[in-house]
Amino acid sequence: MKPGTHLRREIPEASLRRLPVYYRNLQAMVAAGASQVSCADLARVLGLDPTQVRKDIEMTGIVGKPRVGYPLGELIPWLENFLGWNRPKEAVLAGAGSLGSALLGYEKFRRHGMLIVAAFDTDPEKIGERIHGREVQPLMFLPDFVRQHKTQVGVIATPAETAQSVTNLMVSGGIQAIWNFAPTHIQVPAGIILQNEDLYHSLASLSFKLESKLGVSPVENGTCYAKDN
């Protein structure tokens, strides 16, 4: 079966998040000279359950050979197709501050099928500035740009207090999917895809795990106490 000939099916979010991890490691295997991979091989590298790896990959529709696995020359493009990375999708970005500028400069988005073609902001000092090849435009122009270019994806990198109004602008222009980096919950109409990236959630997890490792007990009366060794 060739990539794209199977029916796209629902896949659990946890499995969907693991597929890019598999993909990166498969590419590393190719770079190291490998031509074939089994689920057991991949699971060993990642410290995962081989059964889980096999289920995740089988959900994409590709079938491997028992005790042999998959030819890397087939599995890698299959995953690219399943994840939509081989079909470029244009995106607009709202919020050209520090985070937005970093997103504009991240070239790997392009390699994985997302092209941020325009940036918008409300800051007069930002408007007209060129950031990684894109001229920052007034935010009010965003809906017309989206309609004119039939853009499907909107990326939000604004402060929390303006994220909802930016969402509304994107939806009014016809955006179908929103990638939200703002540290707040936003509401979208039914049928609009919303993907939240909560950086504070990841930071909280990192901080908690680090303090647990260092033996720092919970805050008591505003003071942290280290556990006795």
UniProtKB/TrEMBL annotation:
InterPro entries: CoA-bd (IPR003781), NAD(P)-bd_dom_sf (IPR036291), Rex_DNA-bd_C_dom (IPR009718), Tscrpt_rep_Rex (IPR022876), WH-like_DNA-bd_sf (IPR036388), WH_DNA-bd_sf (IPR036390). Residues 21-60 bind DNA. Residues 84-185 form the CoA-binding domain. One of its GO terms (cellular component) is cytoplasm. The keyword Protein transport does not apply. It comes from the Bacteria. It is found in: Cytoplasm. Signal peptide: none annotated. One of its GO terms (biological process) is response to redox state. One of its GO terms (molecular function) is DNA binding. NAD(+) binds at residues 95-100. Its main location: cytoplasm. Homodimer. Belongs to the transcriptional regulatory Rex family. Modulates transcription in response to changes in cellular NADH/NAD(+) redox state. This is Redox-sensing transcriptional repressor Rex. It comes from Solibacter usitatus (strain Ellin6076). The gene is rex.
